[in-house]
Amino acid sequence: MNKHLIIFIKNPELGKAKTRIAKTTGDERALEIYTELLEHTRNITSKVDAQRHLFYSSSIDTQDEWPGTLFDKKLQMQGGLGAKMQDAFERIQQAGGSMVIIGSDCGALQTEIIEQAFVALQDHDVVLGPTFDGGYYLLGLKAANLDLFSNVDWSTEKVYPQTIQKIKDQNLTYAELTRLHDIDFEEDYLAWKKLLREG
Hints:
This protein is of the alpha/beta class. The protein is 37% helix and 18% strand.
């Protein structure tokens, strides 16, 4: 079965990356932190056994640290997060196979968890990786599903429960992965680094 990994990133630009972290660290430090997260995401996704599609937020960078030999580079459509995700799934769906989307905000995410998502999609319509703040760090689908992305209160604690309700309303089967922390604030980043030091 074809497997497709969709990776959403923001172009690492000063003043535009990790704005909530920047409120306590300043723009330059926030950009450094986001660059760390991008490196982590690049390292774990380069090992995933799937076709990798890297979706940039504002412009495609052919000269950055993401090798074009490993990552098929694309541009996110303009609009809200739900519309962007729906568009990405519809575009990748044309190639056939199962699809998993992640962002670049989850320092705890590992290659093995992404691989688990693809395994779960063999027996389920949807797979979700919940975060502690009420969102999700990963979504896997067998087919693009408009209803999972419309009328969702994005960037709130309602995202995950609303998505689960939509799945149940459509009588779809779903699997849940381990719950992880996203890195949205400086304290999230510091907690992640502490865990890394402690091994």
